[in-house]
Amino acid sequence: MTAAADTLKQRLTTNPTVGLIGLGYVGLPLAVAFAETGATVIGVDLDSRRVAAVRAGTSFIEDVPADVIARLVGAGRLSAHDDVGALKDADAIVICVPTPLGKSKEPDISFIVAAADAVAAIIRPGQLVVLESTTYPGTTQEILAPRFEAKGVVVGRDVFLAFSPERIDPGNKRWTLRDIPKVVGGVTESCRDLASALYARIAPQVVPVSGPQTAEMVKLFENTFRSVNIALVNEFAIMCRRLGISVWEVIGAASTKPFGFMPFYPGPGLGGHCLPSDPHYLSWKVRLEGYEPRFITFADEINRRMPEYVVHLVTDALNDRSRALRGARVLVLGVAYKAGVADVRDSPALEIIEGLSAKGALVEYHDPYVSSVLIGTRPMKSVAWDRAALASRDVVLVLTAHASYDWAAIVREAPLVIDTRNATGSLPPAPHVIRL
Ligand SMILES: NC(=O)c1ccc[n+]([C@@H]2O[C@H](COP(=O)([O-])OP(=O)(O)OC[C@H]3O[C@@H](n4cnc5c(N)ncnc54)[C@H](O)[C@@H]3O)[C@@H](O)[C@H]2O)c1
After folding, report:
1. Residue 274 a catalytic site member
2. Could you tell me the CA-to-CA distances from 314 to 245, 323, 336, 354, 367 in Å, in that order?
3. In 344-379, which positions are buried (b, 16+ CB within 10 angstroms) versus exposed (e)?
């Protein structure tokens, strides 16, 4: 280890200053976790509303209670800024910016590039930089390292660079940031050891791997694994319907096998910032190497057709009752891409509402977390889901199983329920309740 690395390790294991770039679903919980260990945390975000919210001690992420932010800000452990210049004295800088897809599903790493340029402008010997954003293998070494070295510092000697994928599952109370092991890949051994020392503060276990590319690939494997298995179970749901079998009963019984099986559940389609996008980062990269991935493409095709399948389910259910979709009053319950969060990025609900509306249905929605949403360019506001609302619609379409819904009341009051989440699964079967 160099002298710079020794000094930095000392700081990282005692009371470091940790900078976070991007205070979103990943960055804010991470900022709070580091601050809770006694580190001084400086958060930076380009979104002035997020900066103002943290400064005011309020929260915009469901998993992070406002009182915790207020306490940490009040104690001087957490601050928020809109300029990366605030991180010049930080011991460690963790980058958690978005990694969306471009129009042709190619990686859009412009946020990473902008963050890397901003860090390069202030980097000084004795700093550790970690990228957490999900991205294609090679990003850390090809995009970040050269930008820093162009400023005259040597990675592994003066400054230290690693990739550590974020594995947080927003809304998951059982597995929080503090319960999930952290995979770390450093450009050099010192980089890996220093990043491991940083994450040992908050993670139950640090899993070092041989380099950043491996760590980048680990995250893509995890999310591709989910995407492919969800596609498989979505296709099982379609096949089970054709054969008149309940896919939920099949999954429940198959899950009793104590080895070699892991349950995944069908739904109205993939959503959120990660699962619909991440596997394409890998596809893009391997295509450059002349390999055409098949599982990723196939899974994407099945998952992306689920919203359309749900529109067909609604149409068929009405048809079986001699009703047309055109003119039918549909109440959608849940537009967030999963239960317990307000995130509507890539939510299948948006496409389903658009698809139903395009066929003439009169669609409204309720979501306890999402007061308004844009369907294409059309703004919609959440409506009530009380007894009168349930009884007055032709169909109640369950797209997100938020915990606050009273499923028994929904089944009792609504004339027709289409449940894409098996939220009503514990209730007795009824002819007016159709499960995916
Ligand atoms: N959301 C999840 O569940 C999840 C889980 C694991 C990994 N990830 C990955 O983590 C990364 C971040 O995702 P997220 O959901 O937290 O995104 P997010 O959109 O919630 O937050 C990102 C934040 O970064 C800010 N930002 C963008 N460019 C910036 C810059 N140059 N300087 C400062 N701030 C900047 C944005 O304003 C935004 O507030 C992505 O790569 C994502 O794939 C997300």
Report:
1. yes
2. 18, 11, 19, 13, 19
3. bbbbbbbbbbbbbbeeebebbbbbbbbeebebeeee
Sign of CA dihedral 198, 201, 202, 206: positive
User: How far apart are the C-alpha atoms of 427 and 430, rounded to whole Å?
Assistant: 9
Question: With a 6 A CB cut-off, is 112 part of the ligand 1 pocket?
Answer: no
Terminal Cα-to-Cα distance of the chain (whole angstroms): 57
DSSP states of 336-374 = SSSTT----TT-HHHHHHHHHHHTT-EEEEE-SS-SEEE
Ligand 1 within 6 A of CB of 94: no
The number of C-alpha atoms within 13 Å of 364 and in the hemisphere containing its C-beta is: 14
- The Cβ of residue 172 has, within 10 Å, a number of other Cβ atoms equal to 16
Tell me, rounded to whole angstroms, the distance of Cα 74 from its chain centroid.
29
Helix-strand-coil split of the chain, %, nearest 5: 40, 15, 45
**Rounded Cα distance, 385 and 399, in Å:** 14
CA separation for the pair 187, 47 (Å, rounded): 30
pLDDT digits (tens, 9 = 90+) for 399-420: 999 999 999 999 999 999 999 9
Rounded Cα–Cα distance for residues 6 and 339 (Å): 45
Mutate to test the pocket of ligand 1, among 134, 273, 278 (most ligand atoms within 8 A of CB): 273
The closest-lying atom of ligand 1 relative to the alpha carbon of residue 26 is 16
Residue with tokens 């809770």: 36
- Residue located via tokens 């979501």: 367
Mean pLDDT for the stretch of residues 274-295: 95
- State if residue 30 touches ligand 1 by the CB under 6 angstroms criterion: no
AA letter at 196: S
Can you list the positions of beta strands (E) in 244-302?
Answer: none
User: Measured in angstroms, how far is the CA atom of residue 390 from the centroid of ligand 1?
Assistant: 37
Which helix (H) or strand (E) segment holds residue 284: the answer is helix 278-288
pLDDT tens for each residue of 326-371: 999 999 999 999 999 999 999 999 999 999 999 999 999 999 999 9
* Backbone torsion region of residue 27, taken as left when φ is above 0, otherwise alpha when ψ lies between -120 and 50, otherwise beta: alpha
- The contacts of residue 188 (CB under 8 Å, 6+ apart) are 155, 156, 160
Ligand 1 pocket check for 96: Cβ under 6 Å: yes
